[in-house]
Write a structure and sequence with these properties.
The chain has a single domain, classed as Immunoglobulin-like, CATH 2.60.40.2000. The protein has two helices and six strands, in the order ααββββββ. A six-stranded antiparallel sheet has the order 1-2-6-5-4-3, with no helix packed on it. Strand 5 and strand 6 form a beta hairpin. It is α+β, with helices and mostly antiparallel strands.
């Protein structure tokens, strides 16, 4: 219980709500050039100007310059670089 109080409210809500609604990708910005995406289940594309991940039925594109994957697990990715745009992508992309 004490550990739960230390987590930010948004993170606690995401952990409680997202599993009930079928998942989703939770994004967290850390500074100007670092993005954490949790709730992913696959890396579809990796390059210095575009990284594409999927989470359930959603595809997320991260666009920019000098993008680097700093961490990757089964459910999380940490990206650093000059991030210009982040958006959900249509199924056919």
């Amino acid at each position: 219980m004490m550990e739960n109080k230390r987590k930010p409210l948004v993170r606690r809500l995401a952990e409680e709500i997202l599993p009930r609604v079928g998942g989703g990708i939770f994004l967290e910005w850390r500074g100007k050039e670092r993005l954490v995406a949790e709730g992913i289940d696959g890396l579809l594309e990796y390059g210095h100007t575009r990284i594409t991940v999927k989470g359930g039925s959603e595809k997320l594109g991260i666009f920019g310059n000098k993008l680097e994957m700093r961490y990757l697990s089964e459910t999380c990715i940490v990206i650093e670089g000059k991030i210009v745009k982040v958006c959900y992508l249509p199924e056919e992309v």
